[in-house]
Inverse folding.
């Protein structure tokens, strides 16, 4: 790569990309009660928006393997930011312009979910292609910006609503649209590298599927998402019961604590990653995650339960970016297809973890702790995956996937 290119601007644009992703996933849930009161939409329909948003992103994760490499990272990233910005603007307009307000909200979510899905697929490989001193640390720092974006969205939105009233939420939606618009302009100018060397091509799914290492990493990605979400969805419940606050404050404080602790973990590794061993850091995270689950399950104190949620956030922080880094180090020329499939597996885990915890809790009389105890299988499986990865790597110093196998 040419040294005269300013890749620092590319790195900052990637950081902003994950802030956009945080807005996509966390702004509208703050408005659920407002939508219910303002438009008379049943809460069952409103909460379906979360499922639809992530389902749409899953679909984009899958479809992106077919077109991202054809149109290029720059065009794809511009499209992602354009969809995110358009979705926020449509959110401020369509509910008031359409006969059915929910249909307007639904269409807006559909548009910005396309942007969120593309962003998730693109940002990590773009960052990985930047010339940095420590790829592992840079990847962890990148993913910390999703956590800080989450905290920022909740805090700034709460301040806005306190100052101007929740009835002015369409104004805030347009203000948030400025973030992806700014990043769209940035990505149209910054240098963007490539993970694939000249004269070579990225691996196809068939190539990747022939590697046992790929499936180990896919398991780890699924467990990363499941380990995170199996507890984070209950963070507001522990905040509400542990601190004796209202449901509204519980919804704000619990998830914010979880996101902040996860952000701290990723920032710590991003700052000191050159001096830390990724494998050891991940093993420590797996051990702490299992311990935090056990704290939540066996210490019947809601305040301690809230602390356990925070510890879980810190422990899982390295899971997602660390697995991405292991994939890049272990599979040569994995390219866009590999990153897209990793994102897909992670998102499946994000849905699967809470589903397992909820189903078990329901089967045992809505016992939340029993559900979380069952979900301990995910960090445990993460540990098995990390062991198998090391074992696989020990057999070969440089693992690569042979094309056509």
């Amino acid at each position: 790569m040419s040294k005269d290119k300013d890749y620092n601007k590319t790195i900052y644009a990637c950081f902003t990309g994950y802030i956009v992703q945080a807005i996509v996933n966390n702004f509208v849930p703050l408005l659920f009660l407002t939508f219910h009161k303002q438009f008379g939409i049943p809460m069952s329909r409103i909460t379906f928006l979360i499922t639809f948003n992530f389902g749409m992103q899953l679909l984009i994760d899958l479809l992106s393997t077919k077109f991202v490499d054809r149109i290029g990272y720059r065009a794809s990233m511009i499209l992602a930011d354009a969809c995110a910005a358009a979705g926020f603007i449509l959110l401020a307009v369509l509910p008031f312009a359409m006969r059915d307000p929910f249909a307007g909200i639904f269409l807006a979510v559909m548009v910005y979910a396309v942007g969120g899905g593309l962003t998730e697929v693109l940002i990590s490989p773009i960052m990985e292609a930047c010339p940095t001193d420590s790829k592992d640390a840079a990847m962890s720092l990148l993913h910390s910006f999703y956590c800080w974006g989450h905290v920022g969205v909740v805090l700034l939105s709460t301040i806005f609503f306190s100052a101007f009233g929740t009835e002015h939420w369409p104004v805030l939606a347009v203000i948030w649209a400025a973030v992806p618009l700014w990043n769209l302009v940035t990505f149209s100018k910054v240098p963007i590298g490539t993970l694939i060397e000249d004269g070579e091509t990225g691996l196809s799914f068939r190539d990747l599927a022939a590697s046992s290492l790929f499936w180990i990493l896919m398991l780890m990605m699924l467990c990363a998402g499941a380990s995170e979400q199996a507890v984070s969805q209950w963070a507001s419940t522990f905040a509400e019961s542990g601190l004796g606050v209202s449901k509204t404050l519980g919804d704000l404080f619990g998830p914010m604590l979880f996101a902040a602790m996860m952000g701290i973990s990723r920032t710590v590794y991003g700052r000191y990653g050159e001096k830390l061993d990724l494998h050891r850091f991940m093993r420590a995270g797996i051990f702490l995650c299992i311990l935090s689950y056990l704290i939540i399950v066996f210490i019947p104190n809601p305040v301690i339960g809230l602390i356990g949620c925070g510890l879980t956030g810190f422990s899982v922080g390295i899971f997602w970016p660390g697995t991405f880094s292991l994939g890049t180090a272990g599979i040569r020329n994995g390219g866009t297809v590999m990153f897209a499939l990793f994102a897909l597996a992670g998102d499946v885990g994000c849905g699967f973890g809470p589903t397992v915890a909820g189903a078990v809790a329901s089967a045992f009389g809505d016992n939340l702790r029993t559900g979380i105890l069952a979900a301990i299988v995910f960090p445990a499986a993460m540990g098995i995956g990390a062991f198998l990865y090391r074992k696989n790597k020990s057999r070969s110093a440089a693992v690569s996937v042979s094309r056509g196998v």
